[in-house]
Write a structure and sequence with these properties.
By secondary structure, the chain is mainly beta. It is 8% helix and 70% strand.
Amino acid sequence: MRIIKNSIFLLLFFSLSAFSQENDFQTWYSISLNKKIIKKTDLTVKTALRLRENSSLYAKQFTDVKIKRKYNKRISYAVGYRYINNWNIAMDISNQNRFYADINYKNKLSKRFAYAVRNRWQTQGSLYSYKMTLRQKFALDYNIRKTKLAPSVATEYFLTLEDGINKLRSTIALGYPLAKKLDFELAYRIQHEFYVNNPETLFIFEGKLAYDL
């Protein structure tokens, strides 16, 4: 437990202190539908849009389909596919595919605090050019007494065989149930790139809607 907490704090520190050459403010929006298909197994369909250049131009649009199954109260696993449309500076569109598999672990630190670790193996690209990436995400949730607000913090690193850790992403989020089956979340995220030409630091505002069918 101590190792997990130390890892979260170290990754948050390095991601916030990393140096980068270019900055951009982006906004990300997503809507997801969740449906239990059989016992302990859920299907999620998500569509999302991301804006760049101070949120003035399209950056990315994707549709994601994921099947997640609970192994027990703490462990779950998932497989998914994402179809991505990317816009470059000239606003030309290119398409990519992403295939991924997750292993998730969640447990309580105390009555109010819970932590989660997500390990994701993904391959993304088009035609015969695909790149493998390991993503490990650490999250800490807090249960505020006598309120439905759900604050959380998270940090995630992206690891490739060629570059090592080439991206760090840190997030502060606040969730709230708008209705019995409808959840809303606002998040602020900082993302750093490494080992690329003109590495960027992204400052991201994100809004999410999730509905359980």
